[in-house]
Every structure is written in C-alpha cells, then in structure tokens.
Amino acid sequence: MSLATLKRWVTSIADLTDPEEIIWCDGSEAEAQRINNLLVKNETFTKLNPKIRPNSYLARTDPADVARVESRTFICSENEEDAGPTNNWMDPESMRVELKEKFAGSMRGRKMYVIPFSMGPVGSPLARYGVEISDSPYVVASMKVMARVSKQVVQKIADGADWVPAVHSVGVPLIDQAGNQLEDTPWPCNPENVYVVQFPETREIWSYGSGYGGNSLLGKKAMALRIGSVLAKQEGWLAEHMLLIRVTTDQNQKYHMAAAFPSACGKTNLAMLQSQMPGWKVETLGDDIVWMSPNAKGKIRAINPENGLFGVAPGTGLSTNLAAVNSMREGAIFTNVASTADGDVWWEGLTDTPPKNLTDWQGNAFDPESGQLAAHPNSRFCFPIDQVETLSDNWADPEGVELDAIIFGGRRATNVPLVIKSFSWDHGVFLGATIASEQTAAAEGPVGKLRRDPFAMLPFCGYNMADYFSHWLSFADKLDAKDLPTVFQVNWFRKDQNGKFLWPGFAENMRVIQWIVGQLEGKDTGSVSAIGTLPKSDSLNLEGLSTTAEQMEQLLDVDSDSWGVEAADIEGFFEEFGDRFPKQLVDQLGELKQRLSA
To answer: Which residues are catalytic?
Structure first.
C-alpha cells in the first residue's frame, strides 16, 4: 500500500458521501480542544464543572442509540460458511449495493474527518494500522482517547505499511437531495438503518446509522477484534476480548495474566484490582482487548493495542473500583450517565445513595422514588490509559509482555466453581469455548438470560468460530507445552439458595489470583474434579473473610447431575458448528462425560 492509495480511497469516499469539507486529523491536543469546543457548541457535549472534573464532558445519546447492535452487525465473507453460525452473514456484493445506497450523500452538509490511527505502539511488531473516516466529531474525540491518532501513522502507510480502511457515518445528512438545509440534532443517528459491516477478505469496515461508541469507534471491536481475529488467524497470532494485568507477589515475582469476560461482567474491576494482601500488587496493562503472538523464543507475548478505557459506568464505584473512579477525575468523556446539580456526574453504584437534584441520562429531573435508573445500564466512561493510577510501567512495551496465565470467566449463579485450573491446553480451549454468561445491558437481548459466549468473543469473532477454536488448539502443535500459558476459569457470581452472592468479589478476588500464582509456581497440587483442578479446602487464603466453610463448599461444589445437564447443553451448542468443528473439543466433551459418570 502507499500514500497515493490512501488518498485515492479518501477521495472515493468523499465522492460517495459528498461532505462539505475534508479534515485530516493529526491527534494533537490543539485539535482535541477544537473538537471538544465544537461538540459543546453542538450541544452533544456538556462541559462538566472544571473545579470538580477538569477537561471532562458529558454526552447524552438518542435513547434509541445506546449499545452495540449485534442484530445489525455483519461478517460479509465471500462464502457464508466462513462466517459461521454465530455471525450474521450477507452476500458481500449485495451488502455493497445496500451500503452504497445508504452512504450516497450521507455526509452532505457535514465535515468528513480522516482519522489515521494505530492499534498498539507505532512501530511495534505487534501494532496494526487503520484509517477511519467519520462525519461524527464525537468519534474524533473518542478515537483520540482510545487509539493512537497521529501523523506517524500516515508516514507508516507512506512507507508501505498495510492498513485497514474503515468508514463511518451517522446517516443523517444536513442537506437534502433538493439542496435544502436541514436542522441538526445534538446526537444525530439513524437507528432504524444501522449497519456495522466487516468484509474479512478485503479487511474493510463500514458502519452506518449509529453514533454509539461500540458501533462507531471502529478501531475497537470492529478492527481490533473482528478484522483483527481474521488477520490473527492468517498471520499466526490471537486477537482477543481480554484484559491484561501484571501480578507482583510478596516475593517480588512478576506474572502476566490475560482474562476474558463478557461485557459488564467485571473485566475493568479485575484489570484495576487493588490488592489488600500485604506485599502483593496488581497493575493494569489493559482492560478490554489483548493481542497475543509467539515470539522467536516460542513464548506468547501480549500487548494491549488500545490507548484508553471505554468502560461500563454502573457498578464502578468508590467501594468496588476506587482506582477507576480516581483515574477518571479529569480528561474523561462520559456517555449516558446522570449529572449532578454542581456539574459533576453520577451513576448507580458510584456511591451508595444518589445525590439530590440529579438530572438523568435523558436530561430529565430524576425522581429517586420512580423506580427508574438515573444512568443508563450501559452508560460509559472513556479516558486515556495513562491516567490509570494502577498502570504498569511496561504497559506500552512495543515487544509486549510474556504471558503466564489465561483466565476465562462469566456471570454464573450456579454450577461453575469459584476457580478451576485446566488439565491441559486442549482442556483450557474447551473451557474457553464453553463459557456461558448471564446477559447484561452491554448488548441487545433479555437481561439475565444465559447464553454461550465462547472466549467472550461471540459478537467479535470475524470468522467461523469452529475455525477459531481450531486456531487456538493449533498453538499446542506450534509451541512446547511448557511455554504455553496455563488456563484457568473463574466465577465470582455464584449464589446461594436465597439468591445472595457466596463470594465477596471485588478486591477479595486477589485471593483467587494468589491461588492461581501458587498453581503457576507448583506450590499446590490442588484437588482434581471432573471439570478441572480445584483449590483444596485449606489452600485459598481466607484470613479476615467472613466466608464460612459451608459457603466455600458451595463455591467449589461440582454436582454431577447438574453438570450432566450442562454437558448436554454444551453438546447441543457444539453441534451448531457442523463438520468444521474440531475433533479435539468433541473428545474433551466425551472425557468430561466419562469423568462425571465415574
């Protein structure tokens, strides 16, 4: 590729969308301030009280544009089988006809922003580049936070680097076909006509109709995961929906761990966990996306390709994640949270009780007795990662960090124990492939319903998940078993018969991390169960906890009958993938059934 190719592409999109002006973004602070001021002028942003929260803003979206729209997210591979049963597929040529019709004139009266960005440190062997075109200043402001927007990326492209073309429009032109000027709104969107489309073979992304970050910040889920996973399979690495942390023990031993959790299931809390254990420390490298690649020594190294955090606000509070709250004291963009009378923000879980005289996420006076929520359940905070007070000093190492453990988890009220260690790499892939979690507000669908979410990648894998599982399994053939990360599964959310959580969670999850480190160091053989290796009754550090022996027994219980039902459900899920499904995982399921019946 070349700079001329990039310029021709920009010109072709401008010819299609017909903007009034083309602006090439440089990622500078001066540019960010201009964009923020424009968003305030457009009433998209409300500037928060600078004495309380400097250089921070609140955005309220259209009520119909509040989350990722999985039903309108497409993987348009040339062959339908390559998209697989978990993705929405449409014939790429037919989709291009639809997109051309939607995008034709979609930017009339608006400015077209060209946003060159890098996922990962510019120049890193693990970095990948992209260029997003958008008619949304909100996207410009947020991409500045979430990715590395820079002229250096244009130079890399000029030097021949590959890049991913990504096009976004809110789908609301300001001039109609007759040439009449139309009135703008603070949050322009076209929710009845949303498209989030990935073309794997040509590595293109097209997004239309939504301004919400999960649909419009195309470096994030669309490139870093959907297109990223395709690149990773082709090039021999992994693009994953994971957090990344460094754990330092009281003996100053350091371990790096990646963990996959479905959205709104505690990723950010674990990514910024503040240890209460003397001498132990957890530091943040990333909260949402991890790219992993074997190095020349056969070790898997990992980076966080993002440059900021775009997290779920509700449940993030002074008592649950003080580090996150402190890290967003300035330079933050909040979306769909409530606002206070003194010009600050609030959401459920920030404090135990709401302040008086709140304005809710839709701009109305909030009545605490109404039974309604002040903040939307999927309301968001967005801030630069270098503000994270628990940030590890090696978070931006261009070579990445050597990975010691991979953790899978979901939100399960029953069945899944507090923590288990896998028997092998293949068994670890089986654990990842069978993650199930109760639905949250981060995506469409009934809240609370159980759904299988393999590797927490269900909405993000850009190709057939049967092939994705096979790709994960292939690393056992490429690398020595001793060099592979050890795989674990955790569940903070198990409940008793009265519906109360059995495990205190949050900072106390450090005790589970300690047990995981003990397993890495070979200090405890554990207790072998049908589903994995469990902690022995006395091997978890429970000092100072009020958790009873009976509660611990429930937390670690593996009931053969209920797991028999689970195994049957897993078998039905596997059958959805047909002949492409890897035999190794079928064998793992068979071995599970044998252990359960033994």
So the answer is: 265
